[in-house]
Queue: 2 jobs
Job 1
Amino acid sequence: MKIIALNGQLGYGFTEEAFREGMARGPDVLGVDGGSTDGGPYYLGEGRPMVSRQAVRRDLSYALPAAVQRGIPLIIGSAGTGGGAPHVAWTRAIIEELAAEHGLRFRMAVIGAEIPAAEVLAALDERRVRPAQVGVPPLTPAAVHRATRIVGQMGVGPFMEALDRGADVVLAGRACDTAIFASPAIRAGYPTGLAYHMAKIAECGAHCAVPGIGADCLWVELAQDHFIVEPLHPEKYCTPVSTAAHSLYEQADPFMVQEPEGVVDVSAARFEALDWRTVRVSGSRFTPVSGRPTIKLEGAARVGFRAITVAAARDPAFICEVDGIVDRVKELVAGNLRGRLPEGSWSLRFRMLGRDAIMGEREPLRHRLPHELGLVVEALADSQDAADAVVALARSTLLHAGYPGRKATAGNLALPYSPADIPLGPAYEFVVYHLMELEDAASPFPVELVDVGGAA
Amino acid sequence: MSRLVDLAAVLRSKNAGPFLVTLDLLFEDDVTYRRVRDSGVLDPARIGALYGVPAEAVRVIPFDVARAIKVTLPRAHSAGSPADTDVYGAQQHGPLLELEVPE
């Protein structure tokens, strides 16, 4: 089976050169992962995609006409980043627009991935829910209610049903990354372990190649006892190391990949160079789950609204004294806001770029003072107006704060922008990241079929 | 002595889900891989101390077939939560770079 993975995420782009090369080779399936939790909780929580409409439209403007005209399926999973109802609807609108523009007629399966809170609460009540990984607290009813929506990662079942029912295009909400590419392969009778391992590599596009940028097409050929991977751009190449490295990518355990229906064991996988740019992979195994299948649930809750100011400092005395200065700024801001904003309804944070913004107190080099310090002043509050007000006050206070030894008395900060203060909108955090046991892994994901294009 | 950054072909960090960060080290040849794997340099107590987590929370997993060592540990804050500093967890590998490995 010959497969093109368009790229690592729909909307990341790919070169036309790689796409044309891939289509010239006669693929059986086009697939692309549309989302992930990588970018954080905002996209799922707010119901918005992480990629622009223009970028997704661009990628689909190649893939959709090519797939439909050749009569090969186009499979999209985790549409619109979050894979919830608004994300799927957003992607569907782009597909329908392109269909009209190109005069395409096809059958599309739309598979939702949102799971009603009531269903999750019932599962919780019946002790069928557990944390998806170490470090996740047990799920509570409060967390279920706080989440703006809950999606489940669908496995291969709904995709296979869609293909069985004649879908030319499969538009799915949140899905296991692997389900997108494993489903046509398992449906065609390829060994499950190989199909899943192949799918795990394919879903990131050309990320397994050198240079390791996912934003390009990957060619995959699956056989009964191995699969090969090759980047479609002629200047890129896969090596055994780059491909093996990919199998570890974003996984807590390099040997076992958990799927709803079982575990993929890649511990005995072999990666061999067929030539300077093509890698042959074999040895991947699959063990079906012994009990009930599980679906991974994801949900995000809003924690407030944020506003930031981005600034920089060049004065050595300021940079040296900045922690004390910031403490004083926080006191002054708190004093100003006392009785005007409720206590505990707002907070201020200062990120010091160039010093310890990434690792905080764990940064081994945080005492090495840079000649230039970036500062992000950040306010979190119950409303956007409050966050805006807090950050504006913090920014003006910090800009003019005095400190011992100060000579640069005109202003402490270089502000790159006017307006200096940037409203960031709602802030979210993940509150659901749990496994739910159920009888039938496909049951939360009904497949809806739509005929796009209609009568001429 | 050699630094890990000079021995590893790949040395990276990334989220493994929103609550864990995973660090991957890959090596181009078996000799270097085994040298690092068997050196004891990547042990949970040392890594825990570098990252401010208990040793019991650190998993170090050698993956011989891929000449890789994977280290997984809990994030200080879940990805993208207000206190988080690195949504993708892609820049958490700094403390490993300078670790010294004996010949």
Job 2
Amino acid sequence: MMKDRRITNTLVILILISLVISCIELPEESEEFQSKLNVFSVLIPNMKKQFVIVDRTFDISDNSDERISGAQVKIIYGDTAVYFREDSIGFYSDTLNRFWIEPNLVYSMQVVYDDTVRAVTSIPDTFQIYYPQSGDTISLNNLIKWTECTNIEDREYFIGAIPDTSASSGLPQVATTNTYIDLEHWSGFNPSGWYTILIQVMNEDYYDHSMMMGNQFREGNIQGGIGLFGAEVFDMVKVYIQPAE
Amino acid sequence: MKKNALIFVLIFLSANYSQSAAIKGFIKDANTGELILYADVFLQNTDYGTVSSDEGYFVITNIPIASYDLTVSFIGYEKYYQSVTFEEDNFVTVNVSLIPKAISLDEVTVNARKTIFNKTTNISSIPLSPRDVKQSPFFLENDLIKVIQSLPGVTSISDFSSQLYVRGGSGDQNLIQLDGVQIFNPIHFGGLFSVFDADAVQRAKLLAGGFPAEYGGRLSSVLDVYTTTGNPNNTKGIASLSILSSKLIFDGPIPFYKGSYFISGRRTYFDKVLPYFDRDFPYFFYDVYAKVAFEPSNETKVFISNFINHDEFNFNEDGESILMSWGNKVTSLSIRHLISPRFFSRTYLTRSQFTQDINIESEDELTSIVNTIDEYSLKSDVTGFVSPSHQIKTGVEIRRKEWVFDGSFMGGGMLYEYDGTPTLTSLYFQDKWMPSESIIIQPGVRLNYYSVNFQEGKNYRHSTITPRLSAKYFLSKTFAINAAFGKYSQFGTNVHLMGDEGFLGSTFYNWYPIWGIYEPSSSNHYILGIEHWISESINLTLEGYYKTYRQLYKYDIAGFDTKDPLNTLYLEGEGESAGIDFLLKKDLGKLTGWISYSLGLAVVEFKGERYYPIYDRRQNLNVILNFPLVKKFNFSAKFNYGSGAPYNYYSGRYRRYWFDEVDGEYGDWWDDMESVRKRYPSYNRLDILMTRNYKWRQLDVLLKIGVINVLNHKNVFLFYRDHSVTPPALKKVDMLPIFPSIELKIKF
């Protein structure tokens, strides 16, 4: 009798538990892989020629790695559409071949190949490094200064220093929201020699894309596909950095 | 009116005391002086009895005036008998020292766990003895966490993980305490070992769910570990050498005072030895435990303990440098005081520090992460044995942290510099009520008040009320039904900067408080089960659980704005888990050990995506057996089977592009696309261990020889894609292969 009660109670408990487990909503089953267009384009006001790369995603077992040839690519501003021609497989450049990307304007892009993908991006304001000038000699006591880029909100300026020769030490990129930077940031790396100082500002789309850490996959701002349609402005000067005494 | 009521209560209470007597005292080991918990204490031929508490203290009240034979018994000790005569208004004090003896199969002995079964709700609670830990096969050294990972409801995601994933909860949802102090990251490098040295552990208890109101601040489980206090009678030492480390232990009486000390130090030595063979090994760790216990009076015992662990990995080659160090420093002062025969207090004043420092330098990039936590806490509770059917406990806990996180990525391109002062104040009350011999009910409630000052003077506050209820109904003296419900809160989380917990996520610890727009995390536990003593030494438990989680947080890699951490740091999600845990354990006899089986399911949802987390190991089976082989040889075996854990299967790949402003050129590299959740192949591993005792020149020598993964099963650690070929080839990294372990221990 007692044994029957124990067995009954145990079975009741097991049934209750099973009912609870069965009520949990399970994740959906995986779908088959579907290839999408992978488009990359960064509009730059200082550049005569603009580029759009049209690529795709590949199934892991796909032997091919070829980009997309024969896509229709255009960028639209206002009432004007500029069609891009294919320079090489997957690489498309604009037909105007002049400085037609204006700061503070909004541009949209459309790529058609089997599917159609679209994106919109806005161009940051331009700025200029006014100290030092190209050819100057500077030391670690100096500041690098530039004019303000007015429409970037709180996003940073990224400053890189690329050595001309492999004999000089590479310097890590730094970021600031100021319009100047102290070269003391790099004192620990003992820079010496000719360097190209590059300062860049990304628009919000490019900034979000760049802040992606590690191998985290991010679809980006391409509607119907993946990739990036962004914009940046940059300026650079080539200077000689004196070694620290 | 109020004054009259108070007078009435005092008269009522004193009237009760004047009509009967009571007996109280502490129970200790006669050799070591260690307190004995859950010893059976009863007056022969009566219904008056109890068990000693968590502090080794017992009290029996309302005893009719007469003479009795007091009996105290506990597994492994000689029974204690004493005649006691009670007189009116009498509170007799009897402090008992039990004499150890070898356990005999022929004798009827009282199993401590059976006593716990009779006197507490003990739902989802599994105590571990030093024997459970030391007899278990091991990789390089005995480890408490590795043994805990073989208990029901506990999942391990790999051989390289010492994280505890309990009943579908993540690794940062467990409260891990050492001598009453929270340990933030108890893991050595690679997760192969924990900081808990098996020789320093006196007792440990895992509360896998439904834990009572005296514990709080975490969502999933509690691991409560206490270190030994040392032998107050004799000075002893142990020297130990294994493939991994060398260790020295001393314990003994404090000179000129009533008390004892314990000190233990362990250090790995590969980094010192291998250079003599022209090999480099850039990693080492050490642990140091020190504890002093003394008794200023019969009613008061004071413990001062200190624990330090340090890990360091230092690699330099070809212009690349990786320096990683982390460690805990824990100091605890605890005072146990018998306020009156019925009221007992414990007070802890503690400091727990955790520091993690990572610096990775390559040609032009520097990555640096510094995370420090400095927590001061004051904890005090009072246990009241107010009547034979009520044992109440009430307490307060205040924890104040100084928290700093400094991160620099992309050579300083991304900077995280945050600090704050989170403070958690908790009040709790619980009652263990036995309305009859067949029911135990333990209601409780914990009130939490949390505040955090963020660096710019912003202050955020939250309060939560977390009720608890557990109950046990005895169908017979050996069969009971258990049930529990509990609500839990958590006010911080471990942020995995690469996204989900991965194979390195279990080693590094980046703790962030809850702040800004984020609410405290919460979970509800619902537990129902049975417990059956098949015999005096064999116990069976079967428990089902269902847990819900709200306000789970993980690092929002894509959306995080370093300038606005208060609103963009976390993705908020929720989760559920459910399952059945089975445990069959045998504590006595030649053959001891346990079989545990878990069938469980865990699901989380972030940003509308519902998926199985990496610790959703659907089935888990552990079999641990210990038995004497031939004279002086002991044999142990451990077998673990686990169904495959989920991982991200990259069914697609794509090129990621970048633009070089200086050269005006485009570059690209291949990367995997996150696609579906698949499961690794199932895991299984068989470990064996042989131990042999020797006598060598008056010294006791213990030799342990073991082999892990005897069958050399290729358990998959991870899959990855080799993008140097087209299409990318799927490759794998395996976990630990067959490997020997040896340890020599000399006692002097």
